[in-house]
Design a protein that fits this description.
The mean pLDDT is 91. The protein has eight helices and seven strands, in the order E-H-E-H-E-H-E-H-E-H-E-H-H-H-E. The chain is of the alpha/beta class.
């Protein structure tokens, strides 16, 4: 479901006033992809604690239900089993969510996969899987959600990139270009959709302790070398994203768009 140029959505004409505190998400509905574990799970808990109602997407029904059960009792939550690379399923899920909640105010494009390999040995299937999951889904999920935001003249889209999209890392021949694409797509959507009141921003985490990085943390020698290069001398934990996710979802960040915030303990500042 693309966004037609002929849609007659009104343009932004004035800033919105805060409702309650600027970080209060009460009354807002947030859709989070890849929400059943890791960074997505941490962000879903943070947004729920700030008052948001949630639409949680994952391919794993059991983990999704477990995550929904961890949310505050007052949180209205719609768990949906969705593969973000299935564009038809994405559109149907958004339609169902809109019938339930009537609007979606925040979209966090978090679903992703690693698929690490060296450039010389990277196969086409891995390349396609990483590009479809990590980059293409950001566009097509955003396309499905954006029209409802345009009608309200307000919305927040937060794309989870990576410092691998800024720095050249070994074994990142697919992941790095995909995340670099996310960063630039964030800029393009911010330019095209800003007139409709949609703010599009990115978050680029460094190495965080999640299921995706489990194999890295199993290598003790790698951990010692890596942490020595981080100015804050520790790796990121999923909860470190909580405050930033709430800030970017809230009215407090209403004049920020097109930017990608690096959160890596300062690791990208050193060689």
């Amino acid at each position: 479901m693309g966004v037609s140029r002929r849609r007659n959505f009104p343009l932004v004409d004035k800033p919105r006033s805060f409702q309650g505190t600027p970080f209060d998400l009460t009354g807002r509905v947030a859709l989070i992809t890849g929400a059943s574990r890791g960074l997505g799970a941490a962000m879903s808990c943070a947004l729920a604690e700030a008052g948001a109602d949630l639409i949680l997407w994952s391919r794993n029904k059991r983990r999704l239900e477990r995550q929904a059960a961890l949310l505050p009792p007052a949180t209205r939550c719609l768990p949906q089993v969705v593969d973000v690379t299935d564009h038809a399923r994405v559109r149907r899920a958004v339609q169902i969510a809109l019938r339930r909640f009537k609007h979606i105010d925040v979209l966090i494009n978090n679903a992703g996969t690693w698929g690490g390999d060296q450039a010389l040995t990277l196969d086409r299937r891995t390349w396609d899987t990483v590009m479809e999951t990590d980059l293409a889904s950001v566009l097509f999920v955003s396309q499905a959600v954006a029209p409802s935001m345009m009608k309200k003249r307000y919305g927040k889209i937060i794309n989870i990139a990576s410092t691998a999209g800024v720095l050249a890392i070994e074994h990142g021949a697919a992941y790095g270009p995909a995340k670099a694409g996310v960063i630039h797509l964030t800029r393009i959507l911010a330019v095209e959709w800003g007139r409709y009141g949609i703010r599009v921003v990115g978050i680029a985490p460094g190495v965080f302790r999640t299921d995706m990085t489990r194999d890295l943390y199993a290598d003790r020698a790698w951990m010692r070398r890596r942490v020595a290069k981080i100015p804050l001398r520790r790796f990121g934990e999923p909860e470190d994203l909580a405050g930033l996710a709430v800030f970017l979802s809230s009215s407090a960040s209403d004049h920020i768009t097109g930017q990608t915030v690096i959160i890596d303990g300062g690791a990208s500042l050193t060689v």
